[in-house]
């Protein structure tokens, strides 16, 4: 069962990545406006004019 | 979307004075200025891009972002290139009315606390999942053939995850427990903190001596469940508060401050200091308390004293915030509450009421106060019992701590917050915004309801009596002219006629009314004398409707026409009062208005206990008397004179049109023109209280089963995990049950329900209509 010694820390590390991603998204305000976000994804004003 | 910045983009402001919005803006460190606005009229996602692009093209605006969830707009701009007034005007041109938030009223702490809770919950959730992963392996291994080395490795890993997480995510509970202990009280967070600390400590010790069982998963899972409850609770309150803040901003609590040189600037009320001079135009609410310096007008004091007859105001008279200035502009010097004034009396009574109101102990705290000693004593007795029975110290300690773990008040701590969250959600959808979580318990306990009359049972705005009997063409012409008036009766007439555009020739004659020349004929709308109505006609209508206010209309040389207005009862007042009486509530009216007006309203509603002409102290005295008789009183009121009574009552509600002081004194605020939210709130609160009691019983039954098992020493981490999550889920589901069993919102049913409307009135000076104050 020696394989556990590094497999489990790897699994934990992946979990940490997920947690870190969530905390980052929270910090960057992605949960502040849940109703608006679903519409913003459809607007294309972040593209340069020629791509519209 | 790069529209050229054309010159007519920014029209001139509609109002004659300088709108000084800069008092609402906050300078930022990077040199830009930030402002938050509540925006009216946002209906769909398209509004978002309209507003953001529309503002984006204004030179100087660095960022405009609309929050579609809260209907708030955040704008940053360069103060050198543009100003707040430009932003507000631009929004107006786009078709949205925006009201800046008063920075003094906004609370950033709430936001920060919600985020901190969510972070703690995410961390605890991460820990609970990963530790559970390891624990399940250990449990499975214990049942089969795990090697002690592997088990120890798993336990050490769990400890490594659990220790920092428990220290970080549990801070809310430790702090609250410490605060309570320091002042010699206990709350639910005390047993929670002790339980979690001991569980982790025991598990660590067990791990060090390579024991079979460790309870890291229980500790972290408990934290996760509790944080989930806290977060939901906090989120619900924040949502309510955000709506309340928007409403406050939409009411635009601003004042026109007069600078020493006579220039006017619109500033938030919080920026007005005693000694400032403020201009109050006709048709506006007086924003501050003060003394009239110049001007002659009439003041509608109904929101302050309950009195429905307008009082004259001249230099030297005192005016109160919340009253309506009717006929002419007034210059008011702002004063603080001085001894002997109504405001001073109200403030004193409010203070006394807040002190006298015996500190209501929340159900959860009452349970916690008994729960904690019992549980800790049981654990101690278990420890001593096992020692006495010949067990080793370590063995006895493990059993004693397992008692603490299994009784750790997971279900108990969720039992009441879960119901509160569901209930405030239900109330929210029915237009009731609850300030305090324990208001629900207190609402459920109420058995007597005391109503204020003016503005509570009646609508705050006057309505045209018997609009249906008036010749539509006549009403149309009069309403057209009324649209030019700022007088509340003129506004009411225009609303009844659905008129929006005033004749271009209309001009307001201060103190008299409005006049316009249309096709060579002079039309007049205003006081009966202004239109040449003879006294006999006025007397005839007054005899018919003693508390009505009259407006006359005359077209050229034609016979003048009188319109009668009255503050009508709320559309569903009679129905709601009937519903409450049937539900067994005692109902009473305590009003500051004249006896005959109160008597009529009481008769129309079928209420036989009423008192009129009461002062704020008189209202409190009556509440005290009711309390002495053993009643729990729900006070519903809106006026400044109700504020002390609202604070003194067991529980209180106030309509959203109420003055600030009253809204702050009340436990909850209800929206809309109907009274139904009051009855709905009572019904829902009773159902919620029942669910709370059920949940407490579920927790007690759970403990009655689990504790003997723990005392016997049979508890393993697996059993602890199952029991804890099981009981938590049961109480949560029981709380959610309220959602399905709650009565449908009655507010939607309305529209055709005109039973209680004061459909009485008169068209033309002599015309007579039957029926008094509603047909209830």
From TrEMBL, chain A:
Keyword Transmembrane helix among record annotations: yes
Pfam family, one: FixS
Keyword Cell membrane listed: no
Transmembrane segments annotated in the record for this chain: 6-26
Keywords: Membrane, Transmembrane, Transmembrane helix
Protein name as catalogued: Cytochrome oxidase maturation protein
């Amino acid at each position: 069962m020696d394989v556990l010694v590094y497999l489990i820390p790897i699994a934990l590390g992946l979990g940490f990545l997920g947690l870190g991603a969530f905390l980052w998204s929270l910090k960057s305000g992605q949960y502040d406006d849940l109703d608006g976000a679903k519409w913003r994804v459809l607007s294309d004003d972040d593209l340069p004019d020629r791509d519209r | 979307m790069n529209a050229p910045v054309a010159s007519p983009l920014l029209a001139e402001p509609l109002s004659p004075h300088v709108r000084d919005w800069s008092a609402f803006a906050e300078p930022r460190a990077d040199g830009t200025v930030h402002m938050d606005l509540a925006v009216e009229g946002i209906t769909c996602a398209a509004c978002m891009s309209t507003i953001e692009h529309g503002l984006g093209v204004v030179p100087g605006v660095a960022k405009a972002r609309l929050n579609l969830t809260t209907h708030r707009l955040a704008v940053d701009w360069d103060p050198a290139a543009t100003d707040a007034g430009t932003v507000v005007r631009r929004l107006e041109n786009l078709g949205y009315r925006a009201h800046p938030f008063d920075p003094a009223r906004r609370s950033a702490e709430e936001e920060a606390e919600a985020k901190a809770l969510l972070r703690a919950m995410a961390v605890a959730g991460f820990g609970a999942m990963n530790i559970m992963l390891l624990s399940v392996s250990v449990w499975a291994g214990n049942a089969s053939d795990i090697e002690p080395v592997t088990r120890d490795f798993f336990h050490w890993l769990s400890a490594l995850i659990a220790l920092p997480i428990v220290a970080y995510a549990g801070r809310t509970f430790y702090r609250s427990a410490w605060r309570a202990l320091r002042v010699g009280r206990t709350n639910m967070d005390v047993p929670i903190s002790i339980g979690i600390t001991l569980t982790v400590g025991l598990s660590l010790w067990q791990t060090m001596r390579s024991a079979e069982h460790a309870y890291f998963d229980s500790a972290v899972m408990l934290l996760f469940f509790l944080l989930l409850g806290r977060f939901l609770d906090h989120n619900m309150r924040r949502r309510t508060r955000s709506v309340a803040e928007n409403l406050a901003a939409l009411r635009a609590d601003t004042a026109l401050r007069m600078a020493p040189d006579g220039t006017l600037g619109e500033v938030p009320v919080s920026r007005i200091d005693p000694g400032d001079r403020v201009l109050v135009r006709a048709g506006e609410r007086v924003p501050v308390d003060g003394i009239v310096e110049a001007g002659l007008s009439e003041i509608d004091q109904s929101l302050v004293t309950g009195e429905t007859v307008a009082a004259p105001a001249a230099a030297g008279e005192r005016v109160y915030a919340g009253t309506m200035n009717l006929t002419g502009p007034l210059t008011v010097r702002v004063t603080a509450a001085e001894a002997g004034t109504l405001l001073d009396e109200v403030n004193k009574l409010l203070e006394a009421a807040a002190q006298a109101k015996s500190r209501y102990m929340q159900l959860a705290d009452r349970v916690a106060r008994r729960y904690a000693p019992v549980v800790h004593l049981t654990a101690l007795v278990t420890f001593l019992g096992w020692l006495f029975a010949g067990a080793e110290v370590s063995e006895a300690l493990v059993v004693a701590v397992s008692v603490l773990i299994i009784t750790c008040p997971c279900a108990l701590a969720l039992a009441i917050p879960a119901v509160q969250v569901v209930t405030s959600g239900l109330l929210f959808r029915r237009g009731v915004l609850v300030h305090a979580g324990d208001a629900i318990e207190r609402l459920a306990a109420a058995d007597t309801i005391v109503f204020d009359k003016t503005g509570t049972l009646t609508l705050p705005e006057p309505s045209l009596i018997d609009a249906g009997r008036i010749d539509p063409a006549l009403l149309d012409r009069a309403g057209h002219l009324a649209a030019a008036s700022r007088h509340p009766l003129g506004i009411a007439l225009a609303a009844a006629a659905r008129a929006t555009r005033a004749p271009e020739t209309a001009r307001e004659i201060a103190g008299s009314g409005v006049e316009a020349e249309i096709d060579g004929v002079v039309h007049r709308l205003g006081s009966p004398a202004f239109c040449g109505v003879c006294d006999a006609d006025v007397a005839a209508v007054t005899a018919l409707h003693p508390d009505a206010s009259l407006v006359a209309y005359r077209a050229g040389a034609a016979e003048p026409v009188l319109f009668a207005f009255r503050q009508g009862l709320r559309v569903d007042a009679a129905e709601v009062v009937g519903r409450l009486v049937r539900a067994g509530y005692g109902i009473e009216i305590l009003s500051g208005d004249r006896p005959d007006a109160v008597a009529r309203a009481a008769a129309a509603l079928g209420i036989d206990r009423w008192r009129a002409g009461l002062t704020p102290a008189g209202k409190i005295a009556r509440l005290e008397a009711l309390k002495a008789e053993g009643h729990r009183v729900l006070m519903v009121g809106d006026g400044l004179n109700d504020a002390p009574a609202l604070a003194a009552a067991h529980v209180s509600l106030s309509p959203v049109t109420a003055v600030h002081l009253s809204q702050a004194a009340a436990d909850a605020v209800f929206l809309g023109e109907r009274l139904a939210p009051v009855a709905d709130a009572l019904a829902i609160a009773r159902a919620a209280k029942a669910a709370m009691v059920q949940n407490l019983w579920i927790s007690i039954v759970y403990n009655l089963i689990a504790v003997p098992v723990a005392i016997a020493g049979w508890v393993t981490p697996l059993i602890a995990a199952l029991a804890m999550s099981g009981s938590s889920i049961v109480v949560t589901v029981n709380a959610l049950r309220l959602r399905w069993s709650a009565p449908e919102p009655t507010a939607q049913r309305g529209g055709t329900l005109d039973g209680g409307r004061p459909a009485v009135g008169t068209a033309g000076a002599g015309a007579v209509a039957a029926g008094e104050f509603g047909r209830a």
